Amino acid sequence: MANSNAKGDRRERELVNELDAAGFAVMRAPASGSATERELPDVLAGDGEDFYAVEAKSSAGDPIYLDGEEVEALLFFSRNFGAKPRIGVRFDREDWYFFHPGDEAVHVTDGGNYRVKKETALAHGVDFDELVGHSEKVTLDEVADDGPDQGTLDVLSAFERGDLSKEEAAEML
């Protein structure tokens, strides 16, 4: 069991270092139950615009489970602290993915616990770059491909007719 905790601690430190490198002020909270009677989130991070309280979980297996009380404590802390609550999951040989506890992708079991499957994390999770504002997820449905505009078609037609050289056409496009 100590090995499992050591791996979890290492993953939390990895997340802290990645957030720090992305320009966030970040700290890892003390071990569960040692600072207060109420559970604390694993990681607190902010960049002056966005503030996150993260419950971080990692696993070699699938799925990742979170105790319902952990998630309730995360929501309580986040609301009182003014942070956005996030569940951060990392499966072996994958990156970090983040969810709000209320996201549809986070399944609540009959026992009141929370579950995130690997396939759900990869398909619906917010990746690290999106979390820190370095990218934005765009789906294929959101990208309308109406084909080239009229100006592009005119340049291509001129090239086909021989009115423009390849270099001239490329420069205009």
Automatic annotation (TrEMBL):
Q: Which PANTHER family match?
A: HOLLIDAY JUNCTION RESOLVASE HJC
* Necessary cofactors: Mg(2+)
KW Metal-binding (keyword) present: yes
Coiled-coil ranges (or none): none
GO BP annotations of the record are: DNA recombination; DNA repair
Its quaternary organisation is:
Homodimer.
The UniProt entry's sequence similarity note says: Belongs to the Holliday junction resolvase Hjc family.
User: Organism source for this protein?
Assistant: Halosimplex carlsbadense 2-9-1
> Residue numbers for the site described as Transition state stabilizer?
K57
- Superkingdom as given in the UniProt entry: Archaea
Q: Record's SUPFAM superfamilies?
A: Restriction endonuclease-like
Q: What functional role does this protein have? A: A structure-specific endonuclease that resolves Holliday junction (HJ) intermediates during genetic recombination. Cleaves 4-way DNA junctions introducing paired nicks in opposing strands, leaving a 5'-terminal phosphate and a 3'-terminal hydroxyl group that are subsequently ligated to produce recombinant products.
What name is this protein filed under? Crossover junction endodeoxyribonuclease Hjc
Might you give the EC number(s) for this enzyme? Answer: 3.1.21.10
Keywords annotated in UniProt? DNA damage, DNA recombination, DNA repair, DNA-binding, Endonuclease, Hydrolase, Magnesium, Metal-binding, Nuclease
GO molecular function annotation: crossover junction DNA endonuclease activity; DNA binding; magnesium ion binding
Q: Which residues form the active site?
A: S32
Q: Which enzyme class, named as a word?
A: hydrolase
* Positions of Mg(2+) binding: E12, D42, E55
Instruction: Give the cofactor binding note.
Output: Binds 1 Mg(2+) ion per subunit.
The upper taxonomy is: Archaea, Methanobacteriati, Methanobacteriota, Stenosarchaea group, Halobacteria
